[in-house]
Amino acid sequence: MSVSRLFVEADLAAGIEVPLGEAQVHYLRHVMRRPDGAALRLFNGRDGEWQATFAGRGKKAAVAEVGACTRVQAPEPDVWLCFAPVKRARIDYIAEKATELGASALQPVLTRHTAVERVNVDRLRANAIEAAEQTERLSVPEVRPPIDLARLIAGWPDDRRLLICDESGGGPPIAEALAGLDVAARAAPWAILVGPEGGFAEAELSALRRIRDVMAIGLGPRILRADTAALAALACWQALVGDWRQPTPRLSADYRTSKAAV
Ligand code: SAH
Asked: What is the pTM of this model?
């Protein structure tokens, strides 16, 4: 039987019981049809990943009885994805794919040409959690409420390097911009910014250029949709700067069965 991975907020340690949420119990019992005693894996973004056993506590409640630690919490690249929100299906797609691609935070940004004003942060966070469970991450990206571009720039952390995806040809190709970075640059906090379907206003691009470590980069000769650009840039960043540069760690055998079984 495949092993279900669940994100929990609680601290994790051997021998404790973690109460499971109603939705989690419903998912395990009625969707995945897990019996009492079924094996689980828990992670919380802080304490690594732990074996656990599904245990009913009455009709609707259940807990996870925590056993041994299977994976220690490992450092992950710190790369924010800042993006002008797009329509519902596409923004859900961005949340899921950016989580699989290792984004550390998802920051919707309201720009002059942004067509979508409201963002359901709770739904995006639920998408990110589900994607993190499936992709076997040990963390869930932070999903933040939308912020105006001006406020984002005003509060930009000094040490965070910014890649602006600029389709107007304002910068070198991304591979050129990210080639030959020194160790310090690779280890720094980063962010990728993607504009709305209407693109950035000129005044926005010049305001962005005031950020200390900022680079405008190109993603090829075609105009990409915002969701395509966000994920393409993130993939390039992981391949050239992030953790795709390390050999893929061999996940334990039962992950292979769980993947195959799903
Ligand atoms: N302004 C464009 C549409 C913008 S596409 C037009 O006039 O049709 C949405 C966003 O995706 C852009 O703001 C940019 O951040 C990114 N993007 C799209 N294609 C890109 C490319 N070839 N290079 C870099 N960024 C790109």
From this structure: 0.92
